[in-house]
Write a structure and sequence with these properties.
The structure is a homodimer. With about 450 residues, chain A is an alpha+beta fold. Helices cover about 15% and strands about 25% of the residues of chain A.
């Protein structure tokens, strides 16, 4: 299986057997006798098959080119001068990690500008998504907007909504009191293919329209206060982006009054990336990504929902009776195991850490349970601190794989008591014709070969 | 002042005056009359001087080339197709942020391989340092080590220290139970130039050997347990890197037994960067960066401190009496205001948010006080949640600058009750001949011109 066939990033490779204590002792004793002997001795031990990998490996020696194969040289990095500081004023990942990329799904959309690229969740650790791997969802392509020319306007739908319409430069926004908060962002269409039981191969394609960052910006409430909003009249805002898609979304004033919604300029310590709305983006924690309007240029305060095209026609859910539900914008509690996950290969049985991500648009994750037998038994996973509201939570559990085929699953519960449903439960309510808002339990089949496959339990 | 003279990243630019309510209302009324009139109307308002920036600015129109200068076109990004998804499988910052770089200090060291590059703290937000801007400190240059060939060996200084010496591949490490934790890393020499009152110009050069990441890895205690360490005998470990500098450092077993020290492979969601020790690095929370051994290849368990060259000769503090103190490796409580800071320019008086970073190698930051009058009066700053142990904490406070020269300072206190000293207090104990472990209060002089300058109060 090549990485091109299954762009799943890091495989779980077979560990070589741990070295025997005798092997290490031999090598260690030889090390004391001097570096040259140390290296040769280590190689001899390796040849003997008793000490692979051994101290040889830790020093990573290679045979001298054209010389005696029993005489090893230390690797270049253990004896020479490396590269200078600031080789890159802005650094890059290792060349050995080049397979870890965000990827589009060819054919998923008609154009590459109104499309998606997925984050490689199966290769990520912790909760922070590196900004270079953050998923993308563009409605008319992305732009690198000049921040010195960009403006944010605050106005009312009529003269009574606020006292003083305002226009802010980016620099003006950056002078104001700010907050920095870790939040997940998930596209409402994430895991959408699974409604049709398509079973795309990897976690990147099933759940990769999900990312998590530390965002920094100014609470929208502060800007609205400066404009003198009449909060009795103005119960909704319309957020508008500057890109050609004319993206507009309604946000209820309750979310803004709570102080949770903010106008972000920072993401993971630096300015937002162009693909993520540089220089200004609305952050609406817990709400689907489409409301996190990029290239934010205008906030209009009004007294009713706007019913814009992107909320009246798109991002709605077709229900079993033929009707559809609208404004279902909060992302319900959900989780996914990222290791082991589809496209990965366990090349050995024995101990593994099962690890994954859980999140809820309603607050904090309270508990995650793991099954390694297709849902018959469940075990509570460890949650990594800090567990933050409307943020990814990393969970893990110890597992010893006996080498037999089995199905692994995770089931999250949030602080409201809501429990992530399985497909049977979700479909009983929602049917099978949706695209958006699929938060069902994900099942990964670990096959006897070690290959992990996306399956759906009915 | 060019960015080359003062590579301080983002300046604080003068805000243009907020638009008058009348101007916005005019523009808004014209917008209702149709997009073409909206744009023309906005331009007319701008020409009249009443509405700059205005709705014109939010849409960022530019004069039609060669046409009537009163007829404006919407900017390209508001009417055209942008760039495709996954233009970059691994994305980059905006071209407008190219000044935000890590930078060496020319002449600071004799070679560029045994040197430093500094993180641009003055341009960063929140607590996460983007991995591409993480500071660098190399002792013999950096390498991109092949992870499939790298090994980590655990051995004892004699046969009684542990039962079973082990050698791990990176893949073996990655199967084991892991933790993900946010921690700062600070070079012991950070702010070292200030001992000599050199007053380097920017926050990047005074405090930029400081970064903070979410690290992921396996607690070292787990690896030592697997090797069967005798914790009664083995009270110290020696950590050894695979690069040519033969970097070795002693770590006391108490830190390892607490579960805090871990062998990291992940940083901010992805694998460590080559400059930061890819594929394995020791994370020793609260301890100076030199102990966070990069390219980690060996852990030896012993019964006494090793007194390696990098701890017996380097990273020691010359005291007033001519003696020096060793093993002072915990980074004491410290803070710095990053906005406004040296090299930045306030081009206007009025409201600003003062913002900065505080940290302690002893635990959590408890409080940060800010002075805007050279230390006569202090005001307690807001601390951004979550406040984590041995992690950066972002603080902020509101400030209205009256345009007169003044000195701004921050003073942090940690949960042990320790208070960051001023230079007078620090020098009374430590003298003036040190390089390392300077945690004194930093003073920034805001001049009448708005230019901010590094000064030292005696």
């Amino acid at each position: 299986m090549s990485s091109q066939d299954h762009p799943s990033g890091r495989l779980i490779k077979a560990p070589e057997n741990f070295i025997s204590p005798e092997g290490v002792r031999t090598v260690f004793a030889e090390a004391k006798a001097g570096r040259r002997n140390f290296v040769r001795g280590a190689f001899a031990a390796a040849l003997a098959g008793a000490a692979v990998p051994s101290a040889l490996a830790q020093a990573n020696p290679v045979p001298t080119e054209g010389g005696d194969p029993n005489i090893l040289e230390l690797p270049a990095h253990s004896k020479g001068l490396g590269q200078a500081v600031a080789t890159d004023g802005y650094g890059k990942p290792s060349k050995y990690e080049s397979n870890v990329q965000r990827r589009p799904s060819p054919g998923l959309t008609q154009t590459t500008q109104a499309s998606v690229s997925f984050a490689p969740l199966q290769s990520l650790f912790g909760i922070v998504t590196p900004s270079g791997l953050h998923f993308e969802r563009h409605h008319q392509g992305w732009w690198d907007v000049d921040p010195s020319k960009h403006r944010l306007m605050i106005n009312g739908s009529d003269d009574k909504m606020l006292k003083k319409p305002l226009v802010f430069t980016v620099d003006e926004i950056m002078r104001l009191p700010s907050v920095s908060r870790f939040h997940f962002i998930e596209c409402g269409a994430n895991t959408g293919m699974e409604w049709g039981n398509v079973a795309v191969p990897t976690c990147q394609y099933t759940h990769g329209m999900l990312s998590c960052s530390e965002f920094t910006g100014v609470p929208l409430k502060i800007l609205l206060d400066m404009a003198g909003v009449d909060y009795k009249r103005g119960r909704y805002v319309l957020a508008e982006g500057a890109d050609g898609s004319s993206m507009t979304r309604t946000v209820p004033m309750e979310l803004i009054e709570s102080g949770e919604v903010f106008v972000a300029y920072g993401q993971n310590g630096e300015m937002l990336r162009p693909e993520n709305g540089y220089p200004l983006r609305l952050v609406v924690p817990g709400v689907q990504g489409v409301s996190w309007v990029k290239y934010l240029r205008r906030i209009e305060v009004g007294d009713q929902p706007y019913g814009a095209k992107d909320e009246a026609v798109h991002y709605i859910d077709l229900m079993p009776g033929g009707q559809h539900r609208q404004y279902s914008s909060t992302q319900e509690c959900k989780s996914v195991i990222t290791t082991p996950s589809g496209g990965q290969v366990l090349l050995d049985n024995g101990f593994f850490q099962i690890s994954g991500l859980a999140w809820s648009g309603r607050g904090k994750v309270k508990r995650v349970d793991i099954s390694v037998d297709g849902g018959q038994n469940w075990k509570t996973a460890r949650l990594q601190d800090p567990v933050m509201s409307k943020c990814l939570t990393r969970f893990s559990v110890d597992w010893v794989w006996d080498g037999k085929p089995t199905i692994v699953q995770s089931r999250a519960m949030d602080e409201t008591g809501y429990v992530q449903p399985n497909y049977k439960q979700l479909r009983a309510v929602r049917g099978t014709r949706s695209i958006y808002h699929n938060n069902a339990i994900q099942s990964w089949l670990v096959q006897e070969s070690g290959e992990v496959k996306n399956v759906q339990l009915s």
